[in-house]
Amino acid sequence: MKNESEKKETQNPEEESSSSEIVEKIQQLGQSTIPQAPDSNIHVLSIIGQIEGHIQLPPQNKTTKYEHMLPQLIAIEQNPKIEGVIILLNTVGGDVEAGLALSEMIASISKPTVSIVLGGGHSIGVPIAVATKFSFITPTATMTIHPVRLTGMVIGVPQTFEYLDKMQDRVINFVVNHSNIKEEKFKELMFAKGNLTRDIGTNVIGSDAVEYGLIDAVGGVKEAMQKMKELLHDNDRQSPVIQ
User: Fold this and answer.
1) Catalytic annotation present for 123
2) Which residues pair with 65 in a beta bridge?
3) Which residue out of 103, 115, 123, 135 is catalytically annotated?
């Protein structure tokens, strides 16, 4: 019988090198080159932190760069091995146009899509959450609904306010068209006073988001996977059979 030290000495050097590389990747990137589910037909896409648009955010900010996400969504649509997409959301919001671009891209994917709001799906994260075929929110997750705002220098002319108003209408119309919430209710939540410190808007928690019709159901990963299997099954039944 070999003792533990002898076993370590006889370990393949290539295996040691591969193991150390994986550990290093996990430490630096939070992931390894080994796929978590190599035979899975479901792709998981994460939208974390602040959604970065046309302006680069400071390096200390945790961001999701929309120019990285758009090509991934195109690749998902073109890849026949990927049959469904799960969107994981924990975002504070960010660039409105970038967020709407992601929302439109997700909504236009032909494959079944399911979103899970974890932690928070705030601001422009709301349209992204409802862009999928079915949406979930965990019991403790929140969604902040508020009017569109600009940061930095703003030119105080009527055209600026008209631009903001039209951008806000785009957000409202998208959310209403891709969820079960009524436009009046969504506007009521958006313009409510006194719910947020020094601001207007509403912070919606878990089951409340479902009650308002904003999100389809309360649930997490297990429920999302079950729903995805249902959508994939329905998709297979609707697909034409070539004989």
Assistant:
1) yes
2) 52
3) 123
Q: Which residues pair with 137 in a beta bridge?
A: 117, 218
Type of residue numbered 27: Q
Sign of CA dihedral 156, 159, 162, 166: negative
Query: How far is 131 from 100, CA to CA, in rounded Å?
Result: 10
At 214, the amino acid letter reads: L
The ranges assigned to domains in the chain are 43-50+61-238
Q: What mean pLDDT is predicted for residues 182-194?
A: 86
Q: Which of 43, 122, 146, 178 is catalytic?
A: 146
Question: Is 19 in the active site?
Answer: no
- Evaluated on CA atoms 68, 73, 74, 78, the torsion sign reads positive
SS3 136: strand
Cβ atoms of 114 and 136 within 8 Å: the answer is: yes
In CATH, 43-50+61-238 is 3.90.226.10: yes
Q: Give tens-digit pLDDT for 13-32.
A: 555 565 566 555 544 444 44
User: Which residue from 112, 122, 162 is spatially nearest to 142, judged by alpha carbons?
Assistant: 122
Give pLDDT tens digits for 202-226: 889 999 999 999 999 999 999 999 9
**Which runs of consecutive H residues, i.e. helices, occur in the chain?**
4-9, 13-29, 66-78, 96-108, 125-130, 158-177, 183-190, 206-211, 221-238
* Total-model pTM: 0.76
